[in-house]
Design goal:
Layout: E1 16-20, E2 23-26, E3 31-34, H1 37-40, H2 49-61, H3 72-84, E4 89-93, H4 96-113, E5 121-125, H5 134-140, H6 143-146, E6 156-159, H7 164-170, E7 175-180, E8 183-184, E9 190-191, H8 194-207, E10 210-214, E11 238-241, E12 252-256, H9 277-290, H10 293-316, E13 321-327, E14 330-335, H11 339-348, E15 351-352, E16 354-356, E17 360-363, H12 371-396
Parallel strand pairs: 3-15, 5-6, 5-7, 7-10, 10-11
Antiparallel strand pairs: 1-2, 2-3, 4-12, 8-9, 11-12, 13-14, 14-17, 16-17
Helix pairs in contact: 2-9, 3-9, 10-12, 11-12
The structure holds pyridoxal-5'-phosphate.
Pyridoxal-5'-phosphate is lined by residues 95-97, 129-131, 181, 185-186, 214, 216-217, 242-243.
């Protein structure tokens, strides 16, 4: 008999009932250190007092009115995002995949309004992940996501990750935009080198096509800059945001410059929930913290501390781990044994991480993780690796 919850997830046998900062408490009372943050969502950890207060205050005042009216909380957050980023304008969604839908629509409408009605194609990359809606899976193109769900939304093609020559060859008079994650998340924490992102930007300028960056996972302070593309010193045309921006409350956004957004006039797009007062109030509070220079500087400092520790861990366990990659607090441990076995060992040691493709174990702690908790994480990872080594040894004898 089918379960009451549609069985689309392979869930770990854990039920967390409470969160406190970087810690999750299981129904049986065990305390897990959370280096998953609900997949890079709980940017300020669990039950951050300022977020709880802002949510409570807003809940007492107004939950929902719809976009038939002005929403002051939405304007406050949009103004702040415009002030802190390349963007001139913001549309609020409820998720990453909805941000993908709008980014694709925006790029196509841009060309339509210029009379270039055949420019509809979006170039994406292998290993990417852009969400589970029709545009999201079409952009990703991976068999795993699209099989059985045809016909796919047309107008997407995928090239090898970081293959600039293929990109140069693929751009033609049908190309509307390029979409990519500055660091592939689900794909296994695969950063695009800064120089490569700069070259992609130059190519887009040269051909007049739009550059869409999917910063759903790597954005909102995750890499130690507010948005990951800032490391390359470039300015994109459109970015997709979600996950961390709501700190755990469902919220997403599309940020764009005025040129890219020029086709999106009244009536061209909408969302009933998107940008509701509750979500935007919480999002503003998240940004009040994460948008601070000192906060981001501290993320970079803690990332150095964690990476240094992880390098020691890899050196101590060369049969379990191969390398560490990523940026800021978006790190991936490339495993030599099966990543999900390492993850099971982590659960044994009351430590939460997230698996990714390419046999990687993702480490995505809350951005306000303390130095003490980083030390605890390294100890628990070491214990998990020892556990894996014992399993290896008993398999050999
Ligand atoms: C999670 C993710 C998405 C999809 O976000 P949802 O909120 O699950 O729809 C899209 N792109 C990237 C890079 C992601 O990590």
């Amino acid at each position: 008999m089918i379960s009451s919850v549609l069985p689309t997830y392979a869930r770990a046998p854990l039920t967390f009932v409470k969160g406190e900062g970087s810690w999750l408490i299981e129904a049986d009372g065990r305390r897990f250190l959370d280096f998953g943050s609900g997949i890079a969502v709980n940017a300020l950890g669990h039950a951050h007092p300022a977020l709880v207060k802002r949510l409570n205050d807003q809940a007492q005042t107004l939950w929902h009115v719809s976009n038939l009216y002005n929403i002051s909380q939405q304007k406050e957050l949009a103004d702040k995002l415009v002030e802190l980023t390349f963007a001139d304008t913001v549309f609020f969604t409820n998720s990453g995949t909805e941000s993908c839908e709008l980014a694709v629509k925006m790029a196509r409408k841009y060309w339509y309004d210029k009379g270039a009605t055949k420019r509809v194609e979006i170039i994406a990359f292998e290993g990417s992940f852009h969400g589970r809606s029709s545009a999201g899976i079409a952009a990703t193109g991976a068999d795993k996501l699209v099989k059985g769900f045809g016909p796919l939304l047309p107008g997407f093609k995928q090239l090898g990750w970081g293959d600039l020559d293929a990109l140069k060859a693929a751009i033609d008079d049908k190309t509307a935009a390029i979409i990519l994650e500055p660091i592939q998340g689900e794909g296994g924490i695969k950063p695009l080198p800064d120089g490569c992102l700069k070259d992609v930007r130059e190519l887009c300028y040269k051909h007049g096509i739009l550059l869409i960056l999917d910063e759903v996972q790597c954005g909102v302070g995750r890499t130690g800059k507010l948005f990951a593309h800032e490391w390359a010193g470039i300015s994109p045309d459109i970015i997709m945001v979600a996950k961390g921006i709501g700190g755990g409350f469902p919220l997403g956004a599309v940020l764009a410059n005025e040129n890219a957004a020029s086709g999106m006039t009244a009536g061209t797009h909408g969302s009933t929930y998107g940008g509701n007062p509750l979500a935007c109030a919480v999002g503003t509070e998240v940004l009040n913290h994460v948008g601070e220079t000192e906060f981001l500087t501290d993320v970079r400092r803690k990332a150095e501390l964690l990476i240094q520790g992880l390098e020691g861990l890899i050196a101590s366990h060369p049969d379990i781990f191969e390398s560490v990659r990523g940026r800021g607090l978006m790190l991936g441990l490339k495993c030599k044994v099966t990543n999900t076995d390492v993850l099971s060992a982590c659960y044994e040691k009351e430590f939460v991480a997230v698996p990714a493709a390419d046999n990687v174990l993702r480490l995505l702690p809350p951005l306000n993780i303390t130095d003490e908790d980083i030390a605890v994480a390294l100890t628990r990872l070491d214990q998990a690796a020892q556990f894996c080594t014992k399993v290896l040894e008993s398999a050999e004898t």
